[in-house]
Design a protein that fits this description.
This protein is mainly α. It is built from 18 helices and two strands. It is globular.
Length: about 325
């Protein structure tokens, strides 16, 4: 019976991965028109390069960096993604549609800050957003500070393109270390996790070419937002993790009291995500399902309804 439950849970994981492979990352759904049109160009460039790279030893990853550099505004797109990832992960219970649409609508005003990230620009941006994205002022201040730190980590942004820096990384660990200072804050860790998911997988914006080609994304450490946690628990995917934490959730379900604090379930959900064939795709799919279906109890329209356990009494606070 235990093996059967685990196999069913693994099936839920796989179906969520499949959905994630075709789901659109919410951050990309709200790109400004000025940037959204180049995303297909970047994907096409990567696919073409990957085919050549696998066939010939004479093809270098530096070629990919150069080809990306020939696409207009790729550097601004990358910085925009770093900024939006930083802001989105600063909010404890993010309303992604609100956050990303607010950033998109402020794009023209943000452009000078993206081109030259400075502390003065961060303060101006802080005042610009105010309370409009659902973040406390200190949370937003941390997000903007980490954006400036990440963007200026190696060199002055006006002198060195981040695309070239990202292109040199061979593994995920070095990539994260390169973007994070020692003793990085929890927010910065989450921000880098989301950024990695967006630029480190070929289904999104494949800037991190070496990481993708070496399949380093399989070592991804999940961000685990509220939506992912909700889906991992309500769908029964967590049953793939066979330990005392799983039993506690099942016992709570039997007793009819299945409300959990987010910080209490994050370790279980993170271990659940890691069991997926592709953790990045699982988290992208689960977060999308949670935002659009699970949090609204739209079970009849959910893309994984045929495998979901429908533990809808579970709440995450």
């Amino acid at each position: 019976m235990i093996d059967e439950a685990r196999n069913e849970a693994l099936n839920v994981l796989e179906e969520t991965v499949r959905y994630g492979s075709r789901a659109v990352e919410v951050a990309l759904s709200y790109l400004p028109d000025d940037l959204s049109y180049i995303v297909p160009q970047i994907r096409g460039t990567f696919i073409n390069f990957a085919n050549r790279y696998r066939k010939s030893r004479e093809v270098s990853l530096l070629d990919l960096v150069e080809e990306y550099g020939n696409i207009p505004k790729t550097e601004i797109l990358l910085r925009y993604i770093i900024l939006s990832s930083s802001v989105a992960t600063a909010v404890e219970r993010p309303k992604y549609d609100l956050i990303y649409s607010t950033i998109r609508d402020a794009y023209d005003e943000l452009l000078p800050f993206l081109e030259r990230p400075t502390w003065r620009g961060a303060r101006k941006t802080l005042n610009m957003f105010g309370d409009g994205i659902g973040a406390r002022r200190d949370e937003l201040g941390t997000a903007l500070s980490n954006f400036v730190n990440s963007t200026t980590r190696f060199a002055k942004p006006v002198l060195y393109k981040r695309i070239a820096l990202i292109g040199k990384y061979r593994n995920l660990k070095d990539f994260l270390r390169g973007f994070m200072t020692d003793n990085a804050s929890l927010h910065r860790t989450k921000m880098l996790g989301l950024l990695t998911r967006i630029i480190g997988h070929e289904t999104n914006i494949p800037f991190a070419g070496k990481i993708i080609l070496r399949k380093e994304y399989l070592k991804y450490d999940p961000v685990v937002d509220m939506y992912t946690a909700l889906v991992a628990l309500r769908s029964g995917a967590f049953l793939a993790v066979d330990d005392d934490r799983t039993k506690r959730v099942l016992n709570a379900l039997k007793q009819g009291s299945a409300a959990f604090k987010m910080r209490k379930v994050v370790p279980l959900v993170r271990d659940t995500v890691r069991l997926a064939r592709d953790p990045m795709l699982y988290e992208k799919g689960a977060s999308d399902i949670g935002r659009n279906y699970c949090s609204k109890l739209m079970c009849g329209e959910c893309p994984i309804r045929h495998v979901c356990k429908r533990f809808t009494s579970i709440e995450v606070r």
